[in-house]
């Protein structure tokens, strides 16, 4: 299952507690456009509306080779989940102040478009700075090891 679109920014902004797979309701040529990888998840989020979970801000570029009327690229898209899952997710979002963030969109083995949602808690500013510092330290360590193995004479 190769991801079509991933939300790399979400991993930096949020701490993921749990993930859920959901189907996504698409219209017309949106599937073809997704297969071409012409989508953007960076500003997308999921909310509870009228007993359903709806994906907002998910941009799918209109398919170029069609004569159909163009759909709104940022329209709200219904996520397909069981009622029990919806109730459980909504309860956690209300109770603990969590949010639903889409992590990636992919096609499963049967060719059905799926969205991986995460129950997430927003990271604090100091958490982000700590993460950046750890990443920089890791890079420096790798660089030092690489330089050290280069300088060693071979026997």
Q: How would you spell out the order of helices and strands?
A: EHEHEEEEEHEEH
Mean pLDDT: 87
What's the count of strands? Answer: 9
Structural class: alpha+beta
Overall 3D geometry? Answer: globular
Helix percentage:
25-40%
Distance between the termini: 45 Å
CATH class of the largest domain: Mainly Beta
SSE inventory with pairings:
Layout: E1 3-6, H1 8-13, E2 14-24, H2 30-35, E3 39-40, E4 45-49, E5 52-56, E6 59-60, E7 77-80, H3 83-96, E8 99-107, E9 113-122, H4 125-151
Antiparallel strand pairs: 1-8, 2-7, 2-9, 3-6, 4-5, 5-7, 8-9
What does this structure look like?
It is a single chain. 34% of the residues lie in helices and 34% in strands. By secondary structure, it is an alpha+beta fold. The chain has two domains: 3-123, Small Protein B, Chain: A; 124-155. A seven-stranded antiparallel sheet has the order 1-8-9-2-7-5-4. The chain has a two-stranded antiparallel sheet with strand order 3-6.
Short synopsis of the structure:
The chain has 155 residues and is of the alpha+beta class. Helices cover 34% and strands 34% of the residues.
Q: Can you tag this structure with a few keywords?
A:
155 residues, alpha+beta, Small Protein B, Chain: A, 2 domains, seven-stranded antiparallel beta sheet, two-stranded antiparallel sheet, 9 strands, 34% helix
């Amino acid at each position: 299952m190769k991801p079509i679109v991933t939300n790399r920014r979400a991993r930096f902004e949020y701490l993921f507690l749990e993930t859920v797979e959901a189907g996504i309701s698409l219209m017309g040529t949106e599937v073809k456009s997704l297969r071409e990888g012409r989508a953007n998840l960076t500003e997308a989020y999921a909310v509870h509306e009228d007993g359903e979970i709806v994906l907002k801000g998910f941009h799918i570029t209109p398919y170029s080779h069609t004569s159909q009327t163009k759909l709104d690229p940022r329209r709200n898209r219904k996520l397909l989940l069981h009622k029990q899952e919806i109730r459980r997710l909504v309860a956690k979002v209300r109770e603990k102040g969590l949010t639903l963030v889409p992590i990636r969109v992919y096609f499963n083995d049967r060719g059905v478009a799926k969205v991986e949602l995460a129950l997430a808690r927003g990271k604090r500013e100091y958490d982000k700075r700590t993460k950046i510092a750890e990443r920089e330290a890791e890079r420096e360590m790798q660089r030092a090891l690489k330089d050290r193995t280069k300088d060693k004479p071979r026997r």
